[in-house]
Design a protein that fits this description.
Number of strands of chain A: 7
Strand order of the largest sheet of chain B: 2-1-3
Strand content of chain A: 15-25%
Structural class of chain B: mainly alpha
Radius of gyration of chain B: 17 Å
Oligomer: heterodimer
Shape of chain A: globular
Shape of chain B: elongated
Helix content of chain A: 10-25%
Number of domains of chain B: 1
Number of helices of chain A: 6
CATH class of chain A: Alpha Beta
Order of helices and strands of chain B: EHHEHHEH
Radius of gyration of chain A: 18 Å
Number of strands of chain B: 3
Largest sheet of chain A: 7 strands, mixed
Distance between the termini of chain A: 41 Å
Order of helices and strands of chain A: EHEHEEHEHEHEH
Largest interface: A-B, 72 and 57 residues
Number of domains of chain A: 1
Strand order of the largest sheet of chain A: 2-3-4-1-5-6-7
Structural class of chain A: alpha/beta
Largest sheet of chain B: 3 strands, antiparallel
Helix content of chain B: 40-55%
Amino acid sequence: MGSARSKGQSGSQLVPIKIVVAGGFGVGKTTLVSSISEIRPLRTEESLTQVGVGVDDLTGVAEKTTTTVAMDFGRISMGARLVLYLFGTPGQDRFWFMWDDLSYGALGAVILADTRRLSDCFPSVDYFERRQLPFIVAVNVFDDAPDYDVEDVRIALDLDPAVPALLCDARQRSSVKEVLVTLVQHVLAADPGDGRPVPSGQGGLGQPGPVGRATLSGPWRAPPAHEVAPPAVAGS
Amino acid sequence: MPRYDRWTDQEAGPVVRPYALTGGRTEPAGDMVLDLMAVIATAGPVPGPAELAKLSPEQRKLLGLCRTPVTVADSAADMDLPLGVVRVLLADLIQQGMITVLPRQSTRRQARTDLLKEVLDGLRSL
């Protein structure tokens, strides 16, 4: 669709790669993204009739038909053609409808955790496990947070042994760099390596179809938080 | 005639409801939902003044942005319009053959592995 006048292979001039940064509200996602990349503002205005049922309580506000989400994304240019995009997921439950849109075609995800509110990242772990998108857990070390061993965090989150977890300081560029390097190494290690195209939505560095609802897994039909499946059994 | 008079500040939002720019449509033409990372660029013959006159100022601005390939996410950020609105406007321009979605890189194993290694090298050299 719309590709009849495609400019041949000129798409290769720009190769966007997307990484999702998830975690609870106020865990430092924006701090992490801004520590390492150029920040760009993105607004979405979505129709509640499509997205909000079961998420937003519309009682008494039936006339309100759209909801606005202001979010940022980070952009890191790497050489002439490669551009890395970092998308933070909106932290509040009511913005679950954004998650499919944000994680579609992503290379992988970083789940940022705060040891003071570790349970805030349960939904993120569930989501990426269910979506089979490679992810790592980065524990943002806050000054007043209790000292946690990464292993304790792994146990608390019931992480699969293959999922890397590390401590980080979202304010430090070098620390964020290490987090991203860890994620890409994890994705490389988990690469199917048999030439099969990667299923859409799974660590996809490019999907077969660029447009059309059929090629998406329904950005406006993301599961409300309460419908997210329980975590997969760790170690399976 | 500024289209984005603000009542007070960014928080107050635009005076024109965003979907007024799409004639009230919230769904892109042809159910065409563009991925945030889709790379788009102008296509077809350069539109003449008569063709341009039929477009809205926002569509003309989008066409200008797409003279060099750009991602949907960046185009929405550049337009300072909600993503959903930009998707509707882009779908119209794609249907008119003025903008196209550029083909993606190969998903074959070697290309994918090479790309991942390139990302890794890029990160390490930051």
